[in-house]
């Protein structure tokens, strides 16, 4: 178990820079998820921690020791790959024991360690099978077993659930989380799936184009996104954004480009009238037949628990999640209220969050 | 139905000659006479018991085949591993090593015959300049050396073929398996042993089978360099079949040699392929 410190880390491939001076530190035993769209540098970052990718500039320290020049093995880390990366010619037991064998641990001890780990993951009946005889979920469990058996300082997961089907992914999510609680080890986990990030992480690092956008607990990021990117990336369905001009006087309201006025519950401290982007999560939008802004229903998606409605409001698409069961049809006019205390405001140009006010 | 033209051509030019050779091997024919005389197993009896050249050719073919399944594939594998690295000038180097494969064997033979020339050849000149003139053998004239001299030329010509197959095989090696092995603490040798080599198994089978087949029918390069001489010391089965038929005009015996050669080839290749396929399935 160990801390991980990343200080001003850079990575370039020739002239192409993919990681631009990233710094962060992870506590001992923390479950950290690096999340971002593809190409944001999250996997590269993970591979630099692992020692699979050379570091252009900056340092990576594990448990206080700079590991830049150590081989992956010397860093005492274990990694789980997206495509499992199991050795096809070896049995499950051999796959799990391979790293121990390379460290010249006696055979009997390897067998015992593999057995113990297999017990934890429910792999005992599969120990003599080859990877090709296993299902995707079983393979992923073997890959995790191979990592656990070494008792590493840090676990690195590179999109481990991406190749699994939706049901299995939900199940494995819970398993990995339970495993983390059981082992208490530091985990750095890369995914592009914000649901995985929200449900599993102690802290989330949101990356975009090789830069850190925000670091925080899932709810911190969900409730107080520092910019439009983080706001739009986390949460499902994604946050709605409406651009408009914020009035200073009178009751809080936003005037859209089309001239439509959207009533608000509060407004940020902006001093003077200015152009802003209003961000409201679909779950925070409600129906208000008297005071709401008119919108036309375009798509209705009942999920059972609630109904997702995509509506057109002054030429923009707005998604709302309504918990009440409504008798709506496509083309109906509804009136939407944005008067929620959970509204977010962003600067139109910088996309940065504007501090909350009244 | 759409296969019919292909099947017809294949039957006419591949299957029928095969059957005809088989029939001919039981007959006596000089290639001109209208009548072929049925002689039963006499051709086989002759080549196996009364023909000393057959056994020389047989021995040479065995030596040649053993060397062919060792040297070109091993060298080809090392070249492929080297040229699979991120080297400057990798593409032109690959092309250069492959080039001999596409040169006509007879041209290769001629080229190497020049290089082996006892007076003006490249190797003689080089060794003379290095002051090692007393070590120069008569490359193609010494009956103990000639076979190996030809073999060097054959390796030069065929190594590119193995190399290309191995290069293709190396593309199928899973990058993340190499990463996983590095994290497991494997060094380069261990990665080669546990990741690269297992991934190359199907390629190795193909290379060995093709090398065996092509070496058993070694003909043109020997024909072009020594014609089987000196004193039949570089005679090969394929060449002997040709010589018997086309130069001695004893088609019956030539065919019998061909049939023996085919039998040997099948006896080696078929069990090997089924064995490696079984192993492949076990590995799955």
UniProtKB/TrEMBL annotation, chain A:
It comes from the Bacteria. GO terms for biological process: carbohydrate transport. Residues 4-234 form the ABC transporter domain. It holds the Pfam family ABC_tran. SMART domains: AAA (SM00382). InterPro entries: AAA+_ATPase, ABC_transporter-like_ATP-bd, ABC_transporter-like_CS, ABC_transpr_MalK-like, ABC_transpr_MalK/UgpC-like, Mo/tungstate-bd_C_term_dom, NA-bd_OB-fold, OB_MalK-like. GO terms for cellular component: ATP-binding cassette (ABC) transporter complex, substrate-binding subunit-containing. CDD domains: ABC_MalK_N. GO terms for molecular function: ABC-type transporter activity; ATP binding; ATP hydrolysis activity. PROSITE patterns: ABC_TRANSPORTER_1, ABC_TRANSPORTER_2. Keywords: ATP-binding, Nucleotide-binding, Transport. Gene3D superfamilies: 2.40.50.100, Nucleic acid-binding proteins, P-loop containing nucleotide triphosphate hydrolases. Belongs to the ABC transporter superfamily. This is Carbohydrate ABC transporter ATP-binding protein (CUT1 family). It comes from Primorskyibacter sedentarius. The lineage of its organism: Bacteria, Pseudomonadati, Pseudomonadota, Alphaproteobacteria, Rhodobacterales.
From TrEMBL, chain B:
The chain crosses the membrane at residues 7-26, 62-83, 95-115, 145-170, 191-213, 255-275. Belongs to the binding-protein-dependent transport system permease family. GO terms for cellular component: plasma membrane. InterPro entries: ABC_transporter_permease (IPR051393), MetI-like (IPR000515), MetI-like_sf (IPR035906). It is a multi-pass membrane protein. GO terms for biological process: transmembrane transport. It comes from Primorskyibacter sedentarius. Keywords: Cell membrane, Membrane, Transmembrane, Transmembrane helix, Transport. It is found in: Cell membrane. Residues 58-272 form the ABC transmembrane type-1 domain. The keyword Transmembrane helix applies. It comes from the Bacteria. This is Carbohydrate ABC transporter membrane protein 1 (CUT1 family). PANTHER family: ABC TRANSPORTER PERMEASE PROTEIN (PTHR30193), INNER MEMBRANE ABC TRANSPORTER PERMEASE PROTEIN YCJO (PTHR30193:SF37).
């Amino acid at each position: 178990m160990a801390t991980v410190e990343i200080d001003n880390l850079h990575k370039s491939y020739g002239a192409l820079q993919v990681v631009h001076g990233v710094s962060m530190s992870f506590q001992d035993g923390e479950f950290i998820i690096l999340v971002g769209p593809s190409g944001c540098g999250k996997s590269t970052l993970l591979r630099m921690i692992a020692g699979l990718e050379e570091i252009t500039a900056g340092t990576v320290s594990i448990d206080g020791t700079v590991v830049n020049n150590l081989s992956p093995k010397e860093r005492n880390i274990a990694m789980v790959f997206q495509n499992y990366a199991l050795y096809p010619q070896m049995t499950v037991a051999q796959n799990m024991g391979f790293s121990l064998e390379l460290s010249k641990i006696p055979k009997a001890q390897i067998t015992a360690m593999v057995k113990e780990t297999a017990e934890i993951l429910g792999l005992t009946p599969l120990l003599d099978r080859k990877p090709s005889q296993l299902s995707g979920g079983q393979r992923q469990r073997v890959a995790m077993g191979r990592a656990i058996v070494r008792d590493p300082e840090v676990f690195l997961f590179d999109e481990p659930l991406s190749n699994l089907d939706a049901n299995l992914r939900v199940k494995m999510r819970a398993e990995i989380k339970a495993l983390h609680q059981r082992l208490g080890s530091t985990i750095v986990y890369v995914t592009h799936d914000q649901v995985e990030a929200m449900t599993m992480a102690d802290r989330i690092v949101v990356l975009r184009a090789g830069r850190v956008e925000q670091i925080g607990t899932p709810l911190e990021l969900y409730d107080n996104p520092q910019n439009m990117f983080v706001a739009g990336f986390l949460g499902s369905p994604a946050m709605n954004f409406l651009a408009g001009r914020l009035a200073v006087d009178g009751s809080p309201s936003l005037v859209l480009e089309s001239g439509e006025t959207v009533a608000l519950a509060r407004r940020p401290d902006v001093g003077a009238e200015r152009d802003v982007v209003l961000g409201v999560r679909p779950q925070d939008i409600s129906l208000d037949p008297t005071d709401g802004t008119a919108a036309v229903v375009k798509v209705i998606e009942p999920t059972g628990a609630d109904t997702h409605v995509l509506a057109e409001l002054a030429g923009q698409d707005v998604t709302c999640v309504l918990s009440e069961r409504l008798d709506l049809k496509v083309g109906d006019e509804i009136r939407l209220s944005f008067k929620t205390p959970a509204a977010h405001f962003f600067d139109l140009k910088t996309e940065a969050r504007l501090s909350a006010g009244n | 139905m759409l296969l019919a033209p292909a099947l017809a051509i294949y039957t006419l030019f591949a299957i029928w000659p095969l059957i005809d050779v088989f029939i001919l091997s039981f007959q006596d024919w000089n290639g001109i006479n209208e009548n072929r005389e049925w002689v039963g197993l006499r051709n086989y009896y002759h080549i196996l018991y009364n023909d000393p050249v057959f056994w020389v050719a047989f021995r040479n073919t065995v030596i040649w085949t053993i060397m062919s399944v060792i040297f070109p594939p091993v060298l080809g594998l090392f070249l492929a591993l080297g040229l699979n690295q991120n080297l400057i000038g990798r593409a032109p180097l690959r092309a250069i090593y492959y080039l001999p494969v596409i040169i006509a064997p007879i041209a290769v033979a001629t080229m190497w015959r020049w290089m082996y020339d006892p007076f003006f050849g490249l190797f003689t000149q080089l060794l003379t300049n290095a002051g090692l003139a007393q070590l120069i053998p008569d490359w193609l004239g010494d009956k103990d050396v000639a076979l190996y001299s030809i073999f060097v030329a054959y390796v030069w010509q065929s190594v590119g073929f193995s190399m290309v197959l191995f290069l293709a095989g190396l593309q199928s090696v899973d990058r993340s398996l190499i990463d996983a092995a590095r994290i497991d603490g494997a060094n380069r040798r261990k990665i080669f042993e546990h990741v690269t080599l297992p991934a190359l198994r199907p390629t190795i089978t193909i290379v060995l089978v093709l090398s065996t087949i092509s070496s058993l029918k070694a003909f043109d390069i020997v024909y072009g360099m020594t014609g089987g001489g000196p004193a039949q010391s570089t005679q090969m089965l394929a060449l002997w079949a040709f010589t018997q038929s086309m130069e001695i005009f004893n088609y019956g015996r030539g065919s019998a040699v061909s049939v023996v050669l085919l039998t040997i080839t099948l006896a080696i290749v078929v069990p090997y392929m089924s064995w490696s396929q079984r192993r492949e399935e076990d590995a799955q």
